[in-house]
Automatic annotation (TrEMBL):
UniProt organism field: Candidatus Cryptobacteroides merdavium
Upper lineage: Bacteria, Pseudomonadati, Bacteroidota, Bacteroidia, Bacteroidales
Keywords assigned: Membrane, Transmembrane, Transmembrane helix
Membrane spanning stretches: 6-22, 29-47, 67-86, 107-129, 135-155, 167-187, 199-219
Superkingdom as given in the UniProt entry: Bacteria
Record protein name field: Uncharacterized protein
Amino acid sequence: METVVTVLMLLIALVFVLKQSFGKPWTILIAAAAAALFTGLMWPLAIEQSKSRISAWLGDSALMLDAAVVLSVEIVLQMAFCIMAADLSAEGQMPRWKIAVYRILRWFPGVLIFPVLFSTLVYVIFAFPGNDFKLVAWILAALVFILIPAGAWAFRKAIPEKELRLELLFILNALTAFFGVIATVNGQTAVEGFSEVDWSAFAGIVLITLAGAFAGWLWHSFHKSKP
């Protein structure tokens, strides 16, 4: 379970940095500054956490389902940005309301990066016991402030074509959704299973399937026999 959550966090971080590659330098700096300030200021809360508490959070099905809702909303927004950006590149113009929505989605950095940064801060504090927690937090904040613009620049240099970066962003969001389902379901089924089989319904499905197959065979034979 922890491995799946770790992979999910890495995907969220990649999506966040890749999304910044579509922004302007000043928007990238604002996003990096907000992430760095959050990381540096959260150290009093981070030192109160423990591995047992984090494990309890991961085992809380209600909390994980709430997280799944937030994750789903953010993924939908990110995928909508990819689709609208692709449409704009292909058509060259869109209605004003679509352009307004596109701009909002473009400047929306995402909110899931903040839980990822908090989890990273907790892990780093655990990894360096005996050190000044505040100093460790602000060193990590400085790294965050540097890595976000550097990562966005690296994505632009490695993949200069905007269309390819859009495809990569879409794929990463799809993978995030996949791992999000695994991480948030937490071994539970959404619908209670049934121990008995409704044989009449099963027979009806079989008959409908056979009737459809027979009708398709007759249609194919009729068209094949025509000159």
